[in-house]
Amino acid sequence: MTIRRLPMESSSRFRQNAEGSNPRLLTENMPSYFHGWSPDGKWLAFVGQRNDSFNIFRVPLAGGDEQRLTSVPGYDDGPDYSPDGKWIYINTIRSGTWDIWRFPADGAGPNDAKAERITSDEWEDWFAHPSPDGKWLVFLSFPPGTSGHDAKLQVQLRMMPMPGSEVGAKPGPIQKVTEFFGGQGTINVNSWSPDSKRFAYVVYEVLPRKK
What we know:
Order of helices and strands: EEEEEEEEEEEEEE
Strand order of the largest sheet: 3-4-5-6
Number of strands: 14
CATH class: Mainly Beta
Largest sheet: 4 strands, antiparallel
Structural class: mainly beta
Distance between the termini: 37 Å
Low-confidence stretches: 1-8
Shape: globular
CATH topology: Neuraminidase
CATH architecture: 6 Propeller
Strand content: 35-45%
Helix content: under 10%
Mean pLDDT: 86
């Protein structure tokens, strides 16, 4: 068996049956990165690097062209749908620091006018994931000033009540869940249990140097 390693620039999104059969390419344009399923199973939201900018797109699971959902140049990442399917939560640096934002599931509108900022403190927030029961939003927070999510350092998992579904809903208070050594890959995609009682995440282990 030959294993072919693709460069990151060739990253694409595929779907296949759970047992591994019938793989099908969903994103013709590359690169296309992390993704989130719509609750009705009809759409896959993902990050696409197009013309030196990272924005959010969606593609129908039944097949079809990608649709751009955000348009402001910069870096949007980590799309994940709210359980009611009305909002897509992302992390973005459009405010000058990494924060959690959201926008309507059918798009943020011209110049992303419909996008709403959810977190705004000094922490650098990434990869927000709503719980299936719609009560909580968990996300990864890097120390202030961390430039990206590739860093490996002390991070926090933080949680807040899910903002209401109405436009302009006021975000609730943020609480620290735990702190550990982690970073890229800790909680990139949604890992809540179906009953919303648990979620999984990855902690790095610091190994002693060999003498």
